[in-house]
Design brief:
124 residues; 4 helices; 81% helix; mainly alpha
C-alpha cells in the first residue's frame, strides 16, 4: 500500500474538519448540516488511520474492490445532501408563498384604512 495515501486522506479529513468548524464559527453553516460533514470527516479519518478496516468492510459488503465502496459511499452522501437541500428549498418556497399572502392581506387592510373617510375626530 502506498504510504502517502493515508497521510493525504488524514490531511483531507483535517481540512474538512477545520473548514466545517470555521464555517460554524462564522455562522455560515448551520449545525444540522455541519453534523453530516463532521461525520464524513471522522469516517475518512478513521479509514485513513486503519485502511485495513475499509478493505474488510468492503469485502463484508460484497464489493469487489474497496474503491467501489468509496464511490458508493460518496454517491449515498451526495444523494442524501441533495434530498436534504430539496426539502429545504420546498419549505422555503412554501414559507415565501405564505409570507407573500400575508403581505397582500396586510396591504389590502392598509388600503381600506387609508380609504376610510376622515370624520374629523382624532384619537390619540
Amino acid at each position: 500500500m502506498n504510504s502517502s495515501r493515508p497521510v493525504l486522506l488524514i490531511a483531507a479529513a483535517v481540512v474538512v474538519l477545520f473548514l466545517v468548524l470555521e464555517l460554524l464559527r462564522r455562522r455560515q453553516l448551520r449545525e444540522k448540516y455541519a453534523a453530516l460533514w463532521l461525520f464524513v470527516s471522522a469516517l475518512i479519518m478513521f479509514f485513513a488511520i486503519w485502511p485495513t478496516a475499509f478493505g474488510a468492510l468492503s469485502r463484508f459488503l460484497g464489493f469487489g474492490l474497496p474503491v467501489n465502496l468509496a464511490f458508493a459511499g460518496a454517491l449515498v452522501v451526495l444523494l442524501l445532501v441533495s434530498m436534504q437541500l430539496s426539502l429545504e428549498a420546498g419549505r422555503r418556497e412554501d414559507e415565501t408563498q405564505r409570507l407573500a399572502e400575508e403581505i397582500a392581506l396586510l396591504k389590502i387592510e392598509l388600503e381600506r384604512i387609508d380609504e376610510r373617510p376622515d370624520d374629523g375626530s382624532t384619537t390619540k
